[in-house]
Specification:
- The protein has about 190 residues and is α+β, with helices and mostly antiparallel strands.
- About 30% of the residues lie in helices and about 25% in strands.
- It has a five-stranded mixed β-sheet with strand order 2-4-7-6-5, sandwiched between helices. The chain has a three-stranded antiparallel β-sheet with strand order 8-9-10. A two-stranded antiparallel ribbon has the order 1-3.
- β6 and β7 form a beta hairpin.
- It is globular.
- The relative contact order is 0.12.
Amino acid sequence: MKTKFKYQEARKVTDEIIKQLDPHCVKCEVVGSVRREAAEVGDIELLIIPGPYEIGLLKYGLPEVVDSWDHVKGKLNPDKCKYVRRLHPSGIEIDIFFANPVNWGYLKAIRTGSKDFSHKILASSWYRLGYRGVKGNLTKNGKIVPVREEKDLFGLIGLEWIEPKYRSYPLRPNSKPQVTSFRKPKDSDQ
């Protein structure tokens, strides 16, 4: 069983990690249970758009930080990397998910979770409208649909914005209504 950490402890470590990674990233933000402000946190999840980096003998950039932590899963590779897991010296596991400007909002929403919220609210909503999640992107009719910001995904699939701390399933009483409407996508959405 994974060790659980109090939110405040995990948030402090998260802020330190972001300070280390930020100079090597175009974007670097917390997702997962820390973003949802869960009372207990099993790991730290980050979503990044990395800046240029090099692996191997002349490594620079992101690997200088990420490879300083104990390897758990995944190898950094500028062309193929979607996810790595490392063990921080504090004992908290760090999951780092790699995005690009086109899928940033999509990945931020699903990686913020919760898992049940992502599957039973987000995915079921986009599925009913003919969208699919394929290889880290939202697609429709086999074409990638750009989702640059998280709020774009909510609007695209007809959901009101729900603050991350209320994203559980079933939804907590203080959250907004789930669905405003299942609007027919505009041509520009496809």
